[in-house]
Amino acid sequence: MGKNSEKILFLQVFSRVFAIFANIFQKYMRKIIHIDMDAYFASVEQRDHPEWRGIPIAVGFDGERGVVSTASYEARRYGVHSAQSVVVAKRLCPHLLVVPPRFKVYKQVSEQVHAIFHEYTDLVEPLSLDEAFLDVTNNRAGIELAQDIAMEIKQKIREATSLTASAGVSYNKFLAKIASDYRKPDGLFVIHPDRASSFIAKLPVERFWGVGPKTAERMHHMGIYTGEQLRQVSLQHLTEVFGKAGQVYYDFARGIDNREVIVERERKSVGCEQTFLEDLYKTSAVIIELYHTVMELVERIARSGFEGHTLTLKVKYFDFVQITRSLTVADTLTTKDQILPLAKRLLAEVEYSAQRPIRLLGLSVSRTSAATGSTSDEATWEEGWLDFEDWAT
Ligand SMILES: [Mg+2]
Question: Domain span at residue 64?
């Protein structure tokens, strides 16, 4: 063996050993809390309108093409849920009361809640108006158990806002997020490092963070229903089927998620994109997908409270060649009625055909950079495989 190959072997062994120790360290040293307000928009409305308490309500724009943003727990009993069309929701629950959103109020309440988080740590990463990760490994109050901090935060949120939140506690973001969902509403659930493996083993794959309905369906076709079964699949096979996300699923199945809690940077854009199972070239099919993408974008804008003026359309062709088209308007882009016509206008500038079909469509709304007036380069895209909607309020 030459000196160089010895060196490479040493480095490989060293990095492997290092990774193992890093994981153990993460597992026993880090304390992450995920806080998620319960049925947020709907709860705020019921708080401010006592006459709406105890009855099924949905926050969203009423009408033929309206979508439910958040459903109250009373409405959920009828099968009403977020991202559902208002028409379907009303069919399921004929006496459903659909009330328009008041994003300004939701934003104010969110600020109150964040002030409470910052009493404990500045390592706060918001996912949306009503959800955030907190790294409390070194917290201001010097409290040993993250569970105690979570309890205090829940209590303070209730006192300050008259609203309930659910909390999940664990050693990484993935598990903390699952934990907060586990005992909703008003829940507090801890996934201890020693219990993580057996907890994940029993977890249905659709509960995994980042596994949307489509991915879950593909997994089911592969005979994968639980974390235990997911663990049996090789990394190679997972990446063959799911691309980059395969590595994420592989790690999640083993309780590994080394992502840091990233302190809020000012968001530059909100976007979403979708890769199609089959490349598209028929105008009717492309328009339908554009419509779906607009609906998802509107939902994400609502959840993040984002205010932007530039709409960017991204198109990736069958051969992975990618183009973007942007336009900027004076109004803040928040509703479907504003965004859909603009999206169609951008799409009209894009050529495609049976010889040049489309593989991916994406849309984002961004702030306009004052210097250049162009934003398309800054647009950040949430990849399709991270289906955050599955974790909707
Ligand atoms: Mg929520």
Answer: 48-100
Residues 110 and 221 in one domain: no
Tracing tokens 């598209």 back to the chain, one arrives at 280
| Interatomic CA distance for residues 252 and 246, integer angstroms | 10
Confidence of residue 265 (pLDDT cuts 50, 70, 90): low
How far does residue 197's CA lie from ligand 1's centre (Å)? 26
Residue 381 pLDDT: 45
Local structure of 189: helix, strand or coil: strand
Report CA(165)–ligand 1 centroid distance (Å). Answer: 8
CB 132 within 8 A of CB 37: no
Percent of the chain surpassing pLDDT 70: 92
Give me the pLDDT at residue 2, please: 67
Element (H, E) at 128: strand 124-128
Residue 302 CA to ligand 1 centre (angstroms):
13
Would you state the pLDDT for residue 63?
81
**Same domain, yes or no, for 162 and 22?**
no
Q: Which residues are catalytic?
A: 131
**pTM score:** 0.71
Does 204 sit behind a cis peptide bond, omega within 30 degrees of 0 on the bond before it? no
Expressed in angstroms and rounded, the spacing between residue 364 Cα and the centre of ligand 1 is 23
**pLDDT digit string, tens, across residues 117-132:** 999 999 999 888 899 9
230 and 200 part of one domain? yes
Assign residue 303 the CATH number of its domain. 3.30.1490.100
Distance 103 CA to ligand 1 centre (A): 15
